[in-house]
Design goal:
single chain, 5 helices, about 100 residues
Amino acid sequence: MVLFGQVLRGPEAAARGLAWTCHPDGEVVDAAVELAGRAASAPPELARRVKQTLRIVATLDDHEAAVDTELEAQVWSLAQPWFAERLAAVQQRVSGRPKG
């Protein structure tokens, strides 16, 4: 936005996809803590693998190599014992009803 000399407030930045979400000033810390808690609840090996993949991809100049790196990490994730449980939890939140 600096290049265009524009200032976007939080709601507009979120609406344009430049921010994840927008919260009133008094709710920012609670929202950040809640978001961080979700990340902290991920299996530690998954968090390490995501960070590692991001570091590797950031050094690659070739799109195909970046896709291959990400694909390998995703295939690894699919093979982990916790994957099905986490997927079911997401599906339940999306559908609003228990799976089973």
